[in-house]
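Progress note, sequence design subtask.
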């Protein structure tokens, strides 16, 4: 973090904050520092007002909690004025505060200009103004926040490195053109690009912090530039919970169909199939070899076996969704088991969406659900070679536990909070995903964090067993020992 301090008044304030920080430690030792008494008395009754861009996401909630914790024990009144992403409401809040004359205003600017003159007016009225995270055009008493230029430089350096030996074409997906964080990050991008004239920026557009807009921009750019080697993005989404590989760890290999659906979208196998087929055939057209990685057996088979999906009928679907609402997923799954035991065995008993879909298909076709699925012994599409990693539970289970605990340590809870702002709810495809489902229950007060971690571990192990059973039924799979000394070598040997 970088700190900018402009005058002696702020230095005095900083010394005061140091005294605040030291006081609890002295008190714990039973010591009473006599010089602190007048300081404490001078703070009692003062007001600090906080104006974020909006509350209810991890960044601003964390700032609020930290300031409240430090200020209130000293008799400082801490107020919050939440504009909820409305810049006009934010400007009105700042204007109102100027007339109320708090001792300090802590301001999170939505952009460079909106509050600038108001903040200058506030300081002219004797109010200290501390800007956080994103500064305005007016340089107030203090700024506390990230060095956005440095962040832009590091992001771009990683992309430049990943582009070595490739097309050298990159795209930039910005935040909001008027936001200081975007402006300074873009400056960092430009600094690095000035040192690398071989890099060509084919697109630089603002997504306005909107995931759907960022997705649309990215899709268009990729269609126009299929040989794109990197993208500098100013915001992100479901990275931790999906274990998405960071750009710097991809070895310069282009990854496709990441971040293509918003958290509000219902996952569709048919839609995924269409996107994946288009992507695979585009890669093959360029003379490259596509590598399909991960995914459940349902999605894998839909792609390599060219599934033709059974019909759907909104009225029939609604009937079973109503039945689901009336009796719950467990009872509905039991009804599926009565009419199609084979389907019930391959569909998890806690999966309402697939249970409803299976009953819909059975009613519409008059056949068992599995009858709509192609056999697993036909030649796969494109002559695909199928490799699977097999191992023992005593080797895999500790790794599942380690990965889960790392996800929580790396910020899964905070990431989920930010996704809630983007529309994530429990009754959705993303909201039911292992890890996110447990964190949502944690945030709703139904689980402790330890319980959320343990349920995520248990859910992942259960999912592994179910997928292992499904993949084992495919005789085309060449199995490799995941715990072997040279897994890559074994994979290459199997393809020779």
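Output:
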């Amino acid at each position: 973090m970088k700190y900018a301090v402009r005058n002696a008044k702020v230095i005095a304030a900083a010394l005061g904050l140091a005294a605040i920080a030291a006081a609890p430690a002295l008190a714990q030792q039973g010591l009473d520092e006599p010089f602190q008494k007048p300081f404490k008395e001078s703070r009692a009754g003062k007001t600090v007002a906080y104006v974020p861009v909006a509350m209810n996401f991890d960044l601003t909630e964390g700032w609020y909690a930290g300031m409240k914790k430090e200020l209130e024990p000293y008799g400082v009144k801490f107020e919050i004025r939440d504009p909820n992403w409305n810049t006009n409401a934010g400007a009105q809040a700042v204007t109102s505060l100027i007339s109320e004359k708090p001792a300090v205003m802590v301001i999170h600017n939505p952009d460079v200009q909106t509050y600038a003159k108001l903040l200058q007016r506030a300081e002219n009225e004797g109010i200290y103004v501390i800007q956080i995270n994103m500064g305005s055009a007016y340089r107030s008493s203090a700024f506390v926040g990230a060095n956005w230029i440095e962040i832009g430089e590091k992001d771009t350096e990683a992309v430049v490195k990943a582009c070595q030996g490739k097309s050298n074409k990159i795209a930039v997906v910005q935040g909001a053109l008027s936001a200081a964080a975007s402006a300074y990050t873009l400056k960092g991008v430009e600094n690095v690009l000035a040192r690398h004239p071989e890099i060509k920026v084919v697109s630089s557009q603002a997504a306005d912090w909107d995931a759907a807009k960022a997705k649309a921009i990215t899709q268009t750019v990729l269609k126009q530039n299929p040989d794109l080697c990197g993208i500098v993005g100013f915001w992100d989404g479901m990275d931790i919970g999906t274990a998405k590989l960071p750009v710097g760890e991809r070895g310069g290999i282009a990854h496709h169909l990441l971040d293509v659906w918003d958290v509000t979208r219902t996952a569709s196998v048919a839609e995924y199939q269409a996107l994946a087929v288009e992507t695979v055939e585009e890669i093959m057209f360029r003379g490259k070899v596509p590598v399909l990685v991960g995914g459940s057996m349902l999605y894998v088979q839909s792609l390599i076996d060219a599934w033709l999906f059974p019909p759907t009928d909104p009225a029939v679907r609604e009937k079973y969704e109503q039945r689901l609402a009336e009796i719950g997923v467990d009872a509905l799954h039991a009804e599926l088991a009565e009419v199609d035991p084979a389907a019930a065995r391959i569909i998890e008993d806690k999966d309402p969406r697939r249970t409803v879909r299976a009953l819909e298909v059975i009613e519409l076709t008059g056949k068992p659900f599995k009858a709509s699925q192609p056999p697993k012994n036909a030649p796969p599409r494109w002559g695909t070679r199928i490799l699977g990693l097999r191992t023992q539970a005593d080797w895999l289970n500790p790794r599942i536990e380690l990965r889960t605990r790392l996800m929580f340590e790396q910020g899964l809870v905070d990431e989920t909070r930010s996704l809630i702002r983007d529309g994530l709810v429990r009754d959705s495809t993303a909201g039911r995903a292992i890890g996110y489902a447990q964190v949502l229950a944690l945030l709703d007060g139904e689980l402790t964090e330890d319980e959320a971690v343990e349920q995520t571990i248990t859910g992942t192990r259960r999912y592994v067993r179910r997928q292992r059973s499904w993949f084992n039924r495919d005789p085309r799979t060449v199995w490799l020992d995941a715990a072997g000394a040279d897994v890559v070598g074994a994979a290459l040997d199997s393809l020779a």
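Confidence is low (pLDDT under 50) at residues 1-30. Work on this subtask will continue into the next period as scheduled.
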